[in-house]
Automatic annotation (TrEMBL):
Region entry Disordered, spans: 209-264
One Pfam match: Phage_zn_bind_8
Biased composition annotated in UniProt, kind: Basic residues: 254-264
Compositional bias of kind Basic and acidic residues: 225-241
Taxonomic lineage: Bacteria, Bacillati, Actinomycetota, Actinomycetes, Kitasatosporales
First and last residue of the signal peptide: none
Domain DNA-binding phage zinc finger stretches: 175-235
Name of the protein described by the UniProt record: DNA-binding phage zinc finger domain-containing protein
Length: 264
């Protein structure tokens, strides 16, 4: 808050409290009080629609003497009362914030750190809204992202550049088909056991059926039942993800009958 805002805030407090009003009546004392408050509350915004913060509301609450707090009877409002009221709003902002990648050169750790701290401070002081990357990645984006960062499958999670994988595709048809399916957004059948040929997760399906697995050849595509399992598993995953990302609906407010009501 700058001194203009502080002067307005103190004028508001003066309307609620004659002690503040008297202190502001003297020009010298008034200037000193405004300077003190401005120094103490330099990092506190005046209003912040995002979290519903309003410094004048914080002053008003002090005089409401909530929860049996009788301080207002003994002393007028002070900057620390406003700071204490601001703290939870500030914490709320920081909880929502995800550090953006600084534009500074990563090889210059000093500049990098300075920019990172700068963006955090700007959010904490209400100058900029929090950067909410997590909230902006939807369920489909999260799935693509997970596939990209982990490689496909549960095995050795090594990363292979796309162009190398394309060159090798002809020599590994099973793997290529699998990667193409996942890239197209289809569920990964190889993450599950095949109920037809009994192939374990990560293993390709096998043709025919012979005891001991002798003479069986690898299939380049999974058995249809294995794909079905993957689709079902993904539907279930989507359902859970949807449930977890949906806020509970606000309860309907119904008129409550306290007498004569009949339970249905
Ligand atoms: Zn199979």
């Amino acid at each position: 808050m700058i001194d203009n805002h502080i002067a307005a805030l103190l004028a508001f407090a003066g309307r609620l409290d004659s002690r503040v009003r008297r202190a502001l009546a003297d020009p010298q004392q008034s200037a000193r009080t405004i300077a003190d408050w401005t120094a103490a509350l330099a990092d506190v915004p005046t209003t912040l629609p995002d979290t519903g913060w309003d410094a004048s509301q914080a002053v008003r609450r002090y005089y409401e003497q909530r929860a049996g707090d009788r301080s207002a009877q003994f002393r007028p409002v002070e900057p620390h009362d406003v700071l204490a009221a601001w703290a939870p709003h500030r914490a709320e902002l920081m909880n929502r914030h995800t550090d953006p990648i600084p534009e500074a050169d990563p090889d210059d750790p000093h500049a990098w750190r300075k920019e990172l701290l700068g963006t955090r401070a700007a959010v904490a002081h209400g100058h900029t809204p929090p950067a909410q990357y997590r909230a902006e990645i939807n369920a489909a984006g999260q799935k693509r992202l997970a596939a990209m960062v982990s490689g496909v499958g549960r095995g050795s999670r090594r990363y292979m550049p796309t162009e190398i994988a394309e060159q090798l595709a002809a020599f590994r048809p099973t793997r290529a088909a699998r990667e193409a399916a996942v890239a197209a957004g289809q569920p990964d059948a190889y993450a599950h056991t095949c109920t037809w040929c009994g192939a374990a997760p990560e293993e390709p399906c096998r043709t025919g059926y012979r005891r001991n697995g002798k003479g069986q050849a690898q299939r380049s595509t999974p058995h249809p039942c294995r794909t079905d399992t993957a689709v079902r598993a993904e539907d279930e995953h989507d359902r859970l993800a949807h449930l977890m990302s949906t806020l509970p609906a606000p309860r309907e407010s119904r008129a409550r009958h306290t007498t004569g009501g009949q339970h249905r």
